[in-house]
Amino acid sequence: MDGELFPRPRAEIAPGAVHVPDWLDARTQRTLLDACRAWARPPAGLRTVRTPGGGTMTARQVCLGWHWYPYGYARTVVDGDGAPVKPFPARLGELGRRAVTDALGADAVPAGTAYDIALINFYDGDARMGMHRDGDEQSDAPVVSLSLGDTCVFRFGNPGTRTRPYTDVELRSGDLFVFGGPSRSAYHGVPRVHAGTAPPELGLTGRLNITLRVSGRSPDAVAIMGDSPS
């Protein structure tokens, strides 16, 4: 938070997984929030994700570049209104590469690697995200996570199991979390959102998480089918 007596230090949570507090300044947070509100409008807007077992995710989602659905990617909202997915903005790609460079170093993403997916999840005070791995991409480039709004508990685990060992990290508005290398396939989730903790000046009720990924496929590919979660 601005004006904190003891600024929070950056921390390596696991090999290749780094938390950088307050990475986004207040102006950039507001700019991203305005953009997310525009992206959330239909067509191809904010939707409730339904799982193959008939359940629903409590966090709602909108996608850019590629549309994610359990468990793959498509160019249209195949589990919603069927509209073409909104384009992935170049500015988000630039932001993703800068985030990885700041967190893991300039060599963490090979030259020519382009971020081309954004998954934007909206959490109200009751929303959660179960432990899962980001495994539907055909690239092992680091995942970039940006937080806006309410503080959450981000549970970062290990590649082998949904259970312990894991570390709970407090993610506040403006925080950056990057995970790649040996932690790229680690299980992670959000067991709790602290409602009402967003910076008042941001004007957001709830939490937005912007996750940037590299699909690993050519722009003219039709679909990416992922593996079922283990």
UniProtKB/TrEMBL annotation:
Keyword Chaperone: no
MF term (GO), any: dioxygenase activity
Tree of life domain: Bacteria
Gene3D superfamilies, per database record: Alpha-ketoglutarate-dependent dioxygenase AlkB-like
Entry-linked InterPro entries: Alkb (IPR004574), AlkB-like (IPR027450), AlkB-like_sf (IPR037151), Oxoglu/Fe-dep_dioxygenase_dom (IPR005123)
Domain annotation Fe2OG dioxygenase: ranges: 114-216
PANTHER family, per the entry: ALKYLATED DNA REPAIR PROTEIN ALKB-RELATED, NUCLEIC ACID DIOXYGENASE ALKBH1
Protein name stated in the entry: Alpha-ketoglutarate-dependent dioxygenase AlkB
UniProt source species: Streptomyces prasinus
